[in-house]
Design goal:
single chain, nine-stranded mixed sheet, 2 domains, alpha/beta, elongated, Rossmann fold
């Protein structure tokens, strides 16, 4: 082979090598920037989620819903009026489901206060689709239509909120605390926000008097032996009427009944268990 041909061959091979090198560099850079672009997009999305409370709360809410114990819808089971002292039960039932109300549930330990509160929530949601919330109960034992919240500020307008063992959050000894001041403001504007608050306690004497003054409905379960003596004076007469009504009911059936004291109705009703009720719900009360 002549020197001229060898030189031409080497030049051609160099050209091929240079072309392949450029192609390789092109693909490497393309892959690099594509990766960086995807990474940048992912970082941007993550940044938006972290910095945007609305997005963050939506993700959190979706996670809560996924963790719910039951996906079954709420079931409406009407309360059964057993005796009527005064008023119209139907009018009472319609109002408590649709209108903003402050409902106080009281009674001795184990009398079925939580059962009553959750049945009230279920009936309201089944009929009106109002959003339901509860403080102090794990989401994992609740149905999908009840959301567990850590503070009242998380509740949407028109919602129904169940606060079990209300004496813990609204104790009369802490009436001047920041928490109770905020609660007082919330109670005062509850009707304007279309909120229904269901507060559960063993003894209304442990509830701040400002809460009692704003109460629309009192639901009494069977009381303890000293219940009447420990209650505030304004409640004693109501407890006397309730005790008389419960004494006419067989002891093994009293847990299913509630004494209702309301402007529209006063009397005794029989209430069924919530459709999702289990011992886990009761044990997860705050």
């Amino acid at each position: 082979m002549t020197k001229r041909k060898q030189h031409g061959t080497i030049k051609a091979l160099n050209g091929v090598y240079w072309a392949l090198k450029q192609i390789g560099t092109f693909f490497w850079l393309s892959a690099k920037y594509e990766y960086l672009g995807v990474k940048s997009i992912a970082s941007s999305v993550s940044s938006v989620v972290r910095s945007n409370p609305t997005v963050q709360s939506t993700v959190k809410e979706a996670k809560k819903r996924h963790e719910s114990a039951s996906k079954e819808p709420a079931t409406f089971v009407p309360w059964e009026p057993v005796s009527t002292l005064k008023g119209d039960f139907e009018r009472f039932g319609d109002r408590i489901r649709t209108a903003s109300s402050i409902v106080l549930v009281a009674g001795r330990r184990g009398s079925g206060k939580s059962v009553l509160g959750f049945r009230l929530l279920e009936n309201i949601h089944a009929k009106t689709q109002r959003p339901c919330y509860v403080l102090g109960v794990k989401q994992g034992v609740l149905p999908v239509w009840i959301e567990s919240v850590e503070k009242l500020e998380d509740v949407k307008n028109g919602g129904v909120v169940l606060v079990d063992e209300g004496a813990v959050a609204f104790g009369s000894r802490d009436s001047m605390s920041k928490k109770n001041k905020e609660l007082g403001k919330l109670l005062a504007v509850a009707r304007h926000k279309d909120l229904t608050l269901v507060l559960i306690t063993q003894n209304t004497g442990m509830i701040d008097k400002n809460v009692l003054n704003l109460t629309d409905t009192i639901l009494l379960k069977e009381g303890s032996l000293l219940q009447e003596k420990m209650e505030r004076s304004v409640m004693k007469e109501i407890y006397r009427s309730a005790s008389k009504a419960f004494s006419a009911i067989p002891a093994n059936e009293r847990q299913q009944h509630v004494y209702v004291f309301d402007n529209d109705f006063e009397g005794v009703c029989k209430v069924s268990l919530p459709s999702f009720w289990s011992s886990k719900v009761s044990k997860n009360q705050a």
